[in-house]
Write a structure and sequence with these properties.
Keywords: Disulfide bond, EGF-like domain, Glycoprotein, Repeat, Signal. The chain is mainly beta and 588 residues long. It contains one helix and 46 strands. The protein starts with a strand and ends in a 10-residue tail after the last strand.
Length: 588
């Protein structure tokens, strides 16, 4: 240390003013004392402590040594002033909010979830109000709100959306910019549950991003709807629907929900079926009414599985058939006409008209009568002695076109022109006709087999009586004289001692023969034919007579024209197969 002393023009060094070994030097009009280490002052009278300035860093201890100092460094630091750290993380600069990493004498903090900053001193807030906006069979739309604190909101660079399937087969993370608060999750499997988490993200230079605590929800994608949904059968009181479930596409489907609602009703009739079912019939419906049908699939029906429902198929609008005409009977059957009568439809039934069909073994004639209040009709231009099947079908107009009821059938037999024979008719029965005929000229004479020894005598031309019924049986009696007669019948003479009826048929004994009362679905002489009704699409042709006004010479004339219409419908044909390998003999 140098001190300048200003003294009057005298030689002060002669008096040796410097102490503690200081050296005095004369200056013009002054002197100065050059003090050794550890001393200071004008005359080097003060002892100096070198540690007073605190030169040691990071908690190093300073030791004074004759005007100089020495820093004793703590563990983890070295250098003249303990300024160099051998382990930068020794002092735990990240605290309990992060993990310290040392590199090249420096450190960096990897913050725990929910913290950010150089030493993880700042809290990173998560988004709020996470919810599902829309669910589809292959995607989910979600939305959320940013943190409410504005400072925390500005600190965020974006959001991380992570979604994982429950079975662990799928995991993905998408980054969303902070300017957006919604996201669409795509390419998901149908009918599966997913765990969705959304994090706030703060990007760092070292590419080690800080994230907040997540906000979480669980949802399930919709299963795929059914395929091939169709209406297979419609009656006046039932509707049958059918669908298909693909084994791969619908592997997550647990149930199929089918609902039906009559137009105007407030509640649906709902039924849930197992995934193995592919058909269902709704019963106890009202005739001639419009019904709306929906079908959906269900996945994850357990309470812990977050169940989901597929989008419903396009609603099917189906009208049940109107009621068939009831108690159809016939009266006044002549050789060329027949009069039919049926009951008036019940109140509320909106019948627009009737289709009258006349069927023979060779042809079918049809006519449409546009009168919903009709309760009787006369068929004309019939052939004498002909068997007919008459049917009446109610017609109702709907938005999908005309709906036809099941036809009501009636079997009749027109009388002969001479009126000599008795005729019978019944509804759905088998008419019986008794006809008397003269034998043909070439009919041979018949005699009893036991009369071999009786001499042949000229006999009168034999007569025979033929009885024909609807079951195909023929009984004929030949006679040449009142005393001798031969009876020939087309059926066997066996009785019911040995039941000849097959497939559960019941044998009924008669006077000279038997008959088989067959069970449902069987027909034939011995119930040997298995029959069933097979539905197939068909069309019905009917005619309608309309009047058209025509002006001629200032006079309005009405011209009547017949219009033919074709209506698609579902018909049933009977298919019969033999239940035995033996060929059934034909009987005439």
């Amino acid at each position: 240390s140098l001190y300048l002393c200003f003294i009057l023009e005298t030689d002060e060094c002669q008096s040796d003013p410097c102490k503690n070994g200081g050296t005095c030097k004369d200056l013009p009009a002054a002197f100065v004392c050059q003090c050794p280490d550890g001393f200071a002052g004008i005359h080097c009278e003060k002892e100096v402590d070198a540690c007073d300035s605190g030169p040691c860093q990071h908690g190093g201890e300073c030791e004074n040594d004759g005007g100089s100092y020495l820093c004793v460094c703590p563990e983890g630091f070295f250098g003249y002033h303990c300024e160099i750290a051998s382990d930068p993380c020794f002092s735990n600069p990240c605290g309990s909010r992060g993990y310290c990493l040392s590199s090249n004498g420096s450190h960096s903090c990897t913050c725990k979830v929910g913290y950010t900053g150089r030493n993880c001193a700042k809290e990173l807030l998560p988004p709020t109000t996470l919810k599902v906006e829309r669910v589809e069979d292959s995607g989910v739309s979600i939305s959320w709100r940013p943190p409410e604190d504005q400072a925390a909101k500005q600190m965020i660079d974006g959001y991380a959306v992570t979604y994982t399937s429950f079975d662990g087969s799928y995991r993905r993370t998408d980054f969303v910019d902070r300017s957006h608060s919604a996201h669409q999750l795509r390419a998901l499997a149908s009918g599966k549950a997913y765990n969705i988490s959304v994090f706030s993200v703060k990007r760092n230079v070292n590419n080690k991003n800080d994230i907040s605590r997540p906000v979480v929800l669980i949802t399930r994608t919709r299963p795929r709807p059914v395929e091939g949904f169709e209406i297979t059968n419609v009656t006046a009181s039932s509707i049958t629907v059918q669908w298909a479930l693909h084994k791969v596409k619908h592997s997550t489907v647990n149930k199929v929900r089918v609902s039906i609602r009559r137009l105007g009703d407030q509640e649906d009739r709902v039924v849930e079926l197992d995934s193995t079912a592919d058909k269902y019939t709704f019963w106890d419906l009202l005739p001639g009414e419009r019904y709306i049908i929906h079908v959906t699939t269900l996945s994850g029906l357990g309470t812990e599985d977050h169940p989901s429902e597929s989008l419903a198929t396009a609603p099917f609008h189906v009208w049940t058939r109107p009621l068939s005409p009831r108690n159809l009977t016939s009266s006044r059957v002549t050789a060329t006409s027949a009069h039919m009568v049926w009951e008036q439809p019940p109140p509320g039934a909106s019948v627009e008209g009737y289709i009258i069909n006349v069927t023979t073994s060779q042809s079918v004639k049809s006519r449409y009568v546009p009168n919903g209040k009709l309760t009787s009709y006369t068929m004309r231009d019939l052939q004498p002695g002909q068997r007919y099947r008459l049917s009446v079908t109610a017609v109702q107009n709907t938005e999908q076109g005309q709906m036809h009821s099941d036809p009501a059938h009636l079997y009749i037999m027109t009388s002969q022109r001479d009126g000599s024979s008795d005729r019978r008719w019944s509804q759905g029965g088998h008419p019986r006709v008794l006809r008397n005929r003269l034998p043909p000229s070439f009919l041979p004479d018949l005699r009893l087999l036991a009369d071999r020894e009786v001499s042949e005598e000229p006999s009168q031309p034999p007569r025979f009586t033929e009885l024909v019924d609807g079951r195909g049986r023929i009984s004929a009696k030949f006679s040449s004289s009142p005393s001798k007669s031969v009876t020939v019948r087309s059926h066997d003479h066996r009785n019911c001692s040995i039941n000849p009826c097959q497939n559960g048929g019941t044998c009924v004994s008669g006077m000279d023969s038997y008959s088989c009362d067959c069970g449902l679905g069987f027909k034939g002489r011995h119930c040997e034919l298995s029959c069933k009704k097979v539905p197939h699409p068909c069309t019905r042709l009917y005619s309608e007579t309309k009047s058209f006004p025509v002006w001629e010479g200032g006079v309005c004339h009405y011209v009547y024209k017949r219009i033919y219409r074709v209506h698609p419908d579902i018909c049933y044909k009977e298919s019969c197969e033999g239940t035995t390998n033996k060929k059934t003999p034909s009987r005439y």
